[in-house]
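To illustrate the input format used throughout this study, we show a single complete record. The first block contains the structure-token representation of the backbone; no residue identities are included at this stage. The design step must infer an amino acid for every position from geometry alone.
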């Protein structure tokens, strides 16, 4: 075990990714309004202040795991930041159905797209495209590395988890959750990157 650290009381981590230095960008939700945010960040205070409200957060944890290098709240009340990917052009997050590209210091939001999604997972191909498992709308949406919409496909059930293979010909593996009353039709699907 290299390190183990507690993010903070009542902070739920939902996703993380590492940058080239080994620092971890961690996203999630919290119902505390006193995270020690850093100077100049995008959202130094939560959007609400109710006792039972929760808020999205993004932190960059040092490579040693000893401290928050950068910390910010993100989004509106009763929402979370569900996914994160460190990209060459910034930090791509999925929050409340919106893809957003932030700079690595979490001080500015470079771009955002509102794809009207009920997200479950993200995957990335070798070209840097982002595949979003939109379980609520039973589809996969595809965005470029800056968060711009490219395409979508359906016929894959209610996708929850997914991954993309390595190699010269990449495939997308998708877990279909099955119907809400049971798992009789749950499946793992293998499709090409265009959904066929």
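Output of the design step:
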């Amino acid at each position: 075990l290299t390190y183990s650290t507690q993010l903070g009381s009542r902070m739920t981590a939902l996703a993380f990714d590492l940058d080239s230095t080994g620092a971890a960008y961690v996203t999630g939700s919290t119902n505390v309004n006193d995270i020690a945010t850093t100077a100049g960040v995008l959202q130094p205070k939560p959007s609400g202040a109710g006792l039972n409200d929760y808020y999205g957060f993004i932190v960059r944890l040092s490579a040693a795991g000893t401290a928050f290098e950068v910390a910010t709240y993100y989004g509106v009340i009763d929402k979370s930041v569900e996914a994160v990917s460190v990209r060459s052009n910034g930090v791509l997050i999925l929050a409340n159905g919106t893809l957003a590209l932030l700079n690595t210091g979490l001080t500015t939001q470079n771009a955002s797209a509102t794809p009207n999604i009920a997200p479950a997972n993200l995957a990335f191909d070798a070209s840097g495209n982002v595949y979003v498992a939109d379980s609520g709308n039973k589809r996969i949406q595809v965005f470029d590395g800056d968060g711009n919409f490219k395409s979508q496909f359906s016929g894959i059930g209610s996708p929850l988890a997914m991954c993309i293979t390595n190699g010269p010909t990449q495939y997308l593996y998708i877990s279909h959750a099955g119907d809400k009353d049971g798992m009789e039709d749950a499946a793992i699907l293998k499709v090409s990157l265009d959904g066929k």
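Structural context for interpreting the output: The longest strand covers residues 11-18. The chain has no helices and 15 strands.
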